[in-house]
Specification:
By secondary structure, this protein is mainly beta. Helices cover 11% and strands 30% of the residues.
C-alpha cells in the first residue's frame, strides 16, 4: 500500500478526515489500495466486483470521505486513488462512494454541501438512470457494466 506524504488525517466536527498538506496536481497518485478480498462488504471495503470487496488495512484510506462532487477517483485497473482535479492545501480528500458501491453497507445522509448533493447515500442500485449516467466517468468497471445493461 502506498499513501502520498502530501496527505494527513485531521479531526473535524464530523470525525476524522483526510486533507491535503501541500498542493496536489490533477491525476496525482494519492493512495495505492491493497488488502484482502472479501466476498461481502463492510463499512471500510471498496467494491471491485459482484462479490469482491477490497478490505484495506484500516489505515489512512479509511478517512477518504464521500462527496457528491469528489476531488478524487479510483483508477480500477491499478487500484489507485488519483486526484480528479488540482487540490489545494487544506482541502479535504473525497471520493464518490456511489461510483464504487452497488449497495452501501452503512447508508447515510450526505452533508457534503455540493450543489448536486443527493442527500441520501444508499448505493448505486438506488439511483435513477439519469443519476447513474452522470457518474459514468467515475464508475468502477463492475458498475459500468450494470449501467450498460440497464441502458439496453
Amino acid at each position: 500500500m502506498y499513501i502520498s506524504p502530501k496527505l494527513e488525517v485531521r479531526d473535524t466536527s464530523k470525525g476524522k478526515a483526510l486533507f491535503a498538506k501541500t498542493p496536489i496536481e490533477k491525476q496525482e497518485v494519492l493512495i495505492r489500495f491493497a488488502g484482502k478480498i472479501l466476498n461481502y462488504p463492510t463499512k471500510y471495503t471498496l467494491q471491485i466486483d459482484l462479490k469482491k470487496h477490497l478490505e484495506g488495512p484500516g489505515a489512512i484510506d479509511d478517512y477518504v470521505n464521500h462527496s457528491c462532487e469528489p476531488n478524487t477517483y479510483v483508477h480500477f485497473p491499478t487500484l489507485i486513488l488519483r486526484a480528479l482535479k488540482t487540490i489545494q492545501i487544506g482541502e479535504e480528500i473525497t471520493q464518490n462512494y456511489l461510483a464504487t458501491e452497488y449497495d452501501i453497507q452503512n447508508k447515510f445522509h450526505c452533508q457534503c454541501g455540493a450543489k448536486t448533493c443527493l442527500k441520501n447515500i444508499y448505493g448505486f442500485r438506488h439511483l435513477t438512470l439519469q443519476q447513474k449516467q452522470s457518474l459514468r466517468p467515475l464508475l468502477s468497471p463492475y458498475l459500468h457494466t450494470l449501467l450498460e445493461a440497464e441502458e439496453k
